[in-house]
Structures are given as structure tokens and as C-alpha cells.
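Practice problem: predict the structure.
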Amino acid sequence: MATSNDIKNGLCIKFNYDIYKVVEFQHVKPGKGAAFVRTKMKSLSTGRILENTFPAGHKIEPVRIENRKYQFLYNDGQDYHFMNNEDFDELTLQKEMINAPQFLRDGDMVDVVYNAEDHTPMSCELPANVVLTVTFTEPGEKGNTATNTLKPATVETGAEVRVPLFINEGDKIRVDTESGAYLERVNVY
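Answer:
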């Protein structure tokens, strides 16, 4: 059994009959009163974000997890199908279990988080950022790089991303999968 002093980013714990992953935490020691740990946790079953405060020394129940690499095969409209490249085991997940399904392309590698105790998949996580090709956007104008104005652009997966005015169709861009924000243009030579 662990205590709230052992909380760190990425730790999975059982809380309120569900399994949560710690996204953010802060140890607080006020000048007056007892110390506590302020956390922001994400439910691995529903994807809901929960903020909670644990008193210092509070008992928590950590959950052992395993990350396994899977390759995205296809989306049949409802479910997403993946394959383990080592043993060719296929896995079907619902959209709610994937952190950014709008950025998945056929053949992309993802991490599937498993509960190590009962070997059930809990969530699917894309890399922190992905490189995608812009398939449609309004034409850019030369010299329009001084302002921070953004325009909508559709990428190859069908998702819409806000990009700077100088981005054109066919450009490759890096997108943050957590926020869906444009990061940079990628030069491919």
C-alpha cells in the first residue's frame, strides 16, 4: 500500500471504484495546517478529468500497468481495430478509450495501457505529437508571417486544425495530440 506522498505523474491508482491516471500533482505545505497533495486525474474507463485533494500520508492503492505497442489497422465506424506486431493478436477498442482518435492513420503505432493484474486494456495513447499532411486549407499569402492569425486546415485524417496563414495544401505539420494544436511546419527533403 502506498501513500499520497508517493503520487507522481503517470501513476495509476484505484479511486472511487475506478482506475485513474495522475495527470498533474502538487505537494502543498501551507504555513498553517497539515500538508496535502492536490491532483488532477483522468479516468481510464471514461476519460473524465477529476480534481482531488489527498491529505498527506493518505493511503492510496496503486495499480500495476503495462504498455504494449500496437499498430492501428482500421476504423469500422464504431470500433477501432489494432494489431500487436509481435504475436499478431488483434484488439478492438471503443473511441472513448483512445486519447486522440481524430489523428489516427492506418499503420500508426500506439501504446495500449493494460491492467497487469487482469490483462484488460484500459486506454490507448498516441505519441505526444504526430506529423500529418494538410489536405485542404485556404491558400496562404506571401509575407503573412508576422501576425499570430490562424486559419482552419483539414489534415489527412479528416480532423480540423488551426494553422498559421503561411501553411498551404500539401505541407506537413506537427500536431500536439493532447490539445490538437499546431506545433510547427515539418520540412521534408
